[in-house]
Structures are given as C-alpha cells and as structure tokens.
Inverse folding.
C-alpha cells in the first residue's frame, strides 16, 4: 500500500493502475449532485485553488457544528458516483482535478476524461462511515452551505491515511468493466447449463 | 397492561441497536468472507475495512453507515391493543432516535425536495401489524439503506431472455440475473430477501420480511432450502465480490418466501440488503419486561 500526498502531480497519478490500494493524506474537497451542476455553470474561482491537483469526494456527510464555529465530520462514507457521469470529465478538465472518490464506479465518458487529463477514480468502501470519518481529522472551510445544505455543500477537508482503491486509471483500465464482463460470462454459463 | 404505558423508550433503544450494532451472525459471515478471499487483495482489504467499521460503530454507538435507511418494523400485538397507539410510539421513537443521531434525518418531501428534518414522513417509517394470541408484543425491524434499495427488483415470469419459466428454475434464473445487474452497487456482499408469487403490493413486503431470518437458518420447505443454498453458491460464483471489486464474497445469504398468486401472475421479487444488514428485535411482556432477541 502506498501513501499519496495531496496535492499530487500528474506524473504520480499516471503511475497508478487498477488494483492499487492507496492512502491519501492532505487537502481535498467534497461535492455531489448540486455541486457538480454549480461547478459547470461557470468557472468558480473561489473553489478552484482547492481542486487543482487534488481530488473531489462524492460524499454527503453527517456533520457536527462546534461552539467555536468549526465543524467535524461524524459519518462520511461515499455516495453513488454514476449520477455525476454527465459532468465529471468536464469538471476534471476545467479545474485540474487529479482524482475522484466515490462508490460504484463511473462510465465511458469519465474513463476517457481520466486518460485525457491524467486522473484516476478512487473507490472508497461503501458504508464504512465510521472508518472514513476518522480519516478526516479536520474540516477547513465550507462553500455553498446555506444554498445547498449539509450533504450537498462543498466541504474543504484535511484527510489522513484515507483508504481508497484505484478502480479506474488513466490508461483506460476499469475494474468495473472487467468485473462486469467476467460476471456476465459466468452468468451465461450458469443459465445455459442443465435445467 | 401494555396499552397504559408507552413503548417509545424501548423502541428508541431498538433503533439504536439496529443502527449501531450489527447482528453476530452477519459479522461472522463477513469474517468468513474475509478469510476466504485472497489476502492483501482488494476484496480482503474491503472486508477488513468493513469489519473495522462495524467495531468502531459499536464502540461509539454511532451509525454503521451514514445512510441509516428506512426503518421497517413488523409488530405482533395482543388482542385488543391499539395499533394507533403503537404506531404513534414507534414514530415518536424514530424522531427521538434522529434527534439523538442514531438515525440521519432521512425523509425527503418528494414534491418540494425538502428534508422533513426529523426522520419521519409520509410512509416513513413503514410499520406492519399482526395480532397474535400472546399477552405481550414483539417488534422486529430492519434499517433498509437507499443504495441497496435502488438495486431491488421484480421479475415477471416467463422471461424469454433469461429462459425463465414459471417454476423454481425460472426463479433461480431471475435471482441470478438480479445479482448480476446489481454488481457491487448495492454495497455487496449482500443478503437477498426473495418472494416468489404474490402481487406488486404484497411481494415487496414479503421479500423484506425474509430479511428478518437468521443468516444460517434452514428454510422449512425442502425445495426452497435447496434453492437458497444453490443460489448462494452460484451467486458467489459470479465473482462480483465485495463492492464489486471481484472476489468470492458477493452474497452472505439468500432467503426465499412464498405467497400464492393469481393464475395470470408469477412474480419473483428481490430485496437486496447491503452488507450493513441492520436488524434488531425485542419482546416486551405484559408486565413491561424487555427481552432483546437475535
């Protein structure tokens, strides 16, 4: 397993392959449905520095507000990524993202975007809300909290050894395509077998 | 008698247990899966992370998953007890459990898109009542997450594409196709609750009720017991694995129930429960004594 510091270079990201397990440390940002639409409406200068050479995490966290005005993530597993398929490749290109974290994988358009811009899709373990919240020791700031609400806001977070699997790389590899093809062949075999 | 007091506090504890403590048989099945996967592979790492997560949630009494799902409960009650009162107690318990952060505010007004904020809403929680001859009550619940609910499905047999006729081999074909279609998206490894027969109202409820069964029990109907066993094995042979990373642990259990059907209809209905197979049960006797059930 490798530890990967954020921000990260294109060269390092292009060195990753499907099947690698990595732990991320450094600063990243969260964003899901409302965020992706908003990021594409126009270039959002205020969040751009937090995205360049870093990653976006598809996550709708449960957040506690502290008396001193700071926040803590108390449960923070990944949400299903495929809903961002129409926007993801363009968001990666426009903001210089090096990766996307989510669950369930993404489609052909995103896979092509990863190759074009030098980025990877990182799969977090779905449902592991406690393990992942503990890898997020600090919430730095938040954008669009009032407009979008807690789950949909863009949270800038510091992570420490945040565990993820590379399931789509910048060389056209996708574990999701591989597993689907293999399981389809096996399904045919089970259905064509003796009744 | 039970009607005099409130069951709210006991129901809050029932919900807390469901959300934060996974049943021992589910943990054991996940451990078995981890031990069977190639060590250091993605499947094994994912299951290891899941087991850590289960332990952290239990220690800190925090939700196992941030999607705390729909509370679905089946309540057996004695003759003459008001189900309106029981319903109010359970709904109050859902609100209280949400305020105490055992549940996420998880009910959204479908027309306005606004969260109700307290965990309850139209049709949420889902409560099913049944009268029995015992003097006490028994409540058995699950928390059914949204990601896995999205991969639940219903087949209408015959299905030409699957070569599925109106018999148990047709059922087998439909269920295997559902597992294939789900891939890892329902947060595999999953538990399948299946209903054969029924209609489009009754069958989904009956498929969810199957999820109350202990993972290692044996179906009292021999041909269904055999089919459950075979589907567990063949489902795992698909090689989808934890989270769809590939591997031998795709399903933890398959549970099948039957309802009678109309001559024209033959439905196979599948509810997919994620690895966070959150179920809890309690019995309360007429004196108010509480016993936690597995």
């Amino acid at each position: 397993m490798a530890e990967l510091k954020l921000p990260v270079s294109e060269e390092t990201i292009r060195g990753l392959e499907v099947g690698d397990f990595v732990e991320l440390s450094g600063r990243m940002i969260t964003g899901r449905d409302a965020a992706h639409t908003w990021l594409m409406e126009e270039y959002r200068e205020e969040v751009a520095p937090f995205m360049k050479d870093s990653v976006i995490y598809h996550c709708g966290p449960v957040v506690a507000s502290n008396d001193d005005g700071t926040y803590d993530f108390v449960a923070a597993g990944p949400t299903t990524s495929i809903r961002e398929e129409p926007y993801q490749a363009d968001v990666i290109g426009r903001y210089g993202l090096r990766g996307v974290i989510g669950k369930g994988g993404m489609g052909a358009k995103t896979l092509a975007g990863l190759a074009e811009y030098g980025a990877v899709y990182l799969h977090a373990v779905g449902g592991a809300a406690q393990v992942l919240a503990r890898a997020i020791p600090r919430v730095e700031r938040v954008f669009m909290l009032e407009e979008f609400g807690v789950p949909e806001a863009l949270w800038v977070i510091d992570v420490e050894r945040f565990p993820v699997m590379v399931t789509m790389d910048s060389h056209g590899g996708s574990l999701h395509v591989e597993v689907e093809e293999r399981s389809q062949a096996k399904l045919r075999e089970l259905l064509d077998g003796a009744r | 008698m039970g009607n005099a007091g409130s069951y709210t506090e006991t129901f809050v504890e029932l919900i807390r247990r469901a959300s934060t403590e996974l049943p021992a048989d589910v943990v054991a099945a996940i451990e078995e899966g981890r031990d069977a996967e190639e060590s250091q592979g993605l499947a094994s790492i994912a299951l290891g992370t899941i087991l850590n997560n289960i332990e952290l949630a239990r220690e800190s009494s925090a939700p196992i998953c941030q999607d705390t799902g729909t509370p679905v409960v089946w309540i057996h009650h004695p003759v003459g007890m008001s189900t309106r009162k029981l319903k109010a107690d359970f709904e109050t318990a859902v609100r209280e459990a949400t305020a105490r952060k055992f549940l996420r505010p998880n009910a959204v007004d479908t027309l306005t898109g606004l969260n109700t904020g307290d965990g309850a809403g139209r049709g949420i929680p889902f409560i099913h009542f049944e009268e029995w001859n015992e003097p006490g009550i028994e409540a058995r619940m699950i928390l059914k997450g949204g990601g896995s609910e999205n991969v639940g499905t219903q087949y209408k047999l015959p299905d030409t594409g699957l070569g599925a006729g109106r018999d148990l081999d047709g059922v087998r074909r439909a269920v295997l196709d559902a597992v294939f279609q789900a891939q890892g998206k329902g947060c595999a490894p999953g538990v399948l609750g299946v209903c054969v027969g029924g209609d489009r109202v009754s069958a989904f409820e009956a498929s969810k009720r199957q999820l109350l069964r202990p993972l290692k029990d044996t179906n009292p109907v021999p041909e269904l017991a055999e089919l459950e066993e075979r589907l567990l094995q063949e489902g795992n042979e698909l090689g989808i694995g934890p989270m769809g990373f590939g591997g031998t642990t795709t399903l933890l259990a398959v549970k099948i129930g039957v309802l009678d059907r109309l001559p024209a209809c033959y439905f196979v209905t599948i509810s997919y429960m994620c690895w966070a197979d959150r179920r809890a049960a309690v019995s309360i006797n007429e004196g108010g004594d509480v016993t936690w059930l597995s």
